[in-house]
Amino acid sequence: MRLNHSKGQKGEMIAVEYLIRQGFKIIEKNWRFSKFGEIDIIAQDNDALVFIEVKTRTSNEFGHPTEAISTKKLNRIKKLAEIYINRENSGAYKDFRVDMIGILFGKNTEITHIRNI
After folding, report:
1. With a cut of 70, which residues of the chain have pLDDT below it?
2. Helices (H), 1-117
């Protein structure tokens, strides 16, 4: 389990570096609301506030990382995003969305960014 946590943290670090290169401004990492859950990355993309789920894998054996988000998980992220928006007075943003980043470690690290999932 600890190995998976470490792999996940490394994946999130790679995702943050990728997002910064793409022009995103990182606002929060691992934002948690009570025991309800956590959003991996909250970032600004132009005038949009973006809630980003990062999934990391070392192989495609159990599917690509972008296939690892369930409808239940997506609904939880949306609810957490709503809580964040209400708590943090995020009225300065014109748009909100949920993105996903899949990190596949291997010979060459593969980064897949899906916007507005």
Report:
1. 1-5
2. 2-21, 71-87
